[in-house]
Amino acid sequence: MTSIDLPTPHGPARVEMHCAPEGRAALLLGHGAGGGIQAPDLVAAARAARDVGLHVALVEQPYRVAGRRAPAPARQLDAAWLAVAEALGSGWFDGLPLVFGGRSSGARVACRTAAQGQAVAVLCLAFPVHPPGRPEKHRLDELHGVEVPVLVVQGDRDPFGLPGSAHHREVVVLPGDHSLKADPEGVARVVGEWLDRVLRPLD
């Protein structure tokens, strides 16, 4: 594991690198709004990705690096994420396909930036479809806007809602709530199988 700081338009982001022996692609994973990169589902997904031959970069947004818990506005999150993706894509991961992903808020960032960042697939852990108890305030347009393969892994008791499957989008429901910490082995299994399958045509 290697930790590096990368400049973004909104301050430095911190990236924890977990490299596979021979990387076939790279997975960038972002954290939730109030949490960090050590969330159980992120750790499980990172392990699964390495097991199927992906380099993994766990990305800590600048507001977290600066010690703030309240998330930055969406446009700042997206700009910082794209700056990190560009730096990694032209450096550590030069020439490799990039998969964007994250949990909760990080999943939203991955969806919104997938096209501009030229991601080949998007992994969403606990995508927050709507605020708890407010289904009318949904964010499904962010999911619908992704035109590459998407995997959504959601807890069956997630108060933030459950998206449906759609063209390019698979949804897997596991036991648990928004944290997805009830079944980390299930998260790892689902993520590993999906990554291996969607990346096979690019090998």
Structural class: alpha/beta
Residue share in β-strands: 15-25%
Question: How far is the first residue's CA from the last residue's CA?
Answer: 25 Å
Oligomer: single chain
Please identify, by name, the CATH architecture: 3-Layer(aba) Sandwich
So how many helices?
6
Mean pLDDT across residues: 95
Characteristic terms for this protein:
203 residues, alpha/beta, Rossmann fold, 8-stranded mixed beta sheet, 8 strands, 23% strand
Describe this structure in words.
Helices cover 31% and strands 23% of the residues. With 203 residues, the protein is an alpha/beta fold. It has one domain: Alpha/Beta hydrolase fold, catalytic domain (Rossmann fold, 3-Layer(aba) Sandwich). Strand 5, helix 4 and strand 6 form a beta-alpha-beta unit. Helix 1 packs across helix 6 and helix 3 packs across helix 4. The protein is globular and about 40 Å long. The two termini are 25 Å apart.
Give the SSE map:
Blueprint: E1 2-6, E2 13-18, E3 25-30, H1 40-51, E4 54-60, H2 62-65, H3 74-90, E5 98-103, H4 105-113, E6 121-125, H5 140-144, E7 150-155, E8 169-174, H6 184-199
Parallel strand pairs: 3-4, 3-5, 5-6, 6-7, 7-8
Antiparallel strand pairs: 1-2, 2-4
Summarize it:
Helices cover 31% and strands 23% of the residues. It has 203 residues and is of the alpha/beta class. It has a single domain, classed as Rossmann fold (3-Layer(aba) Sandwich).
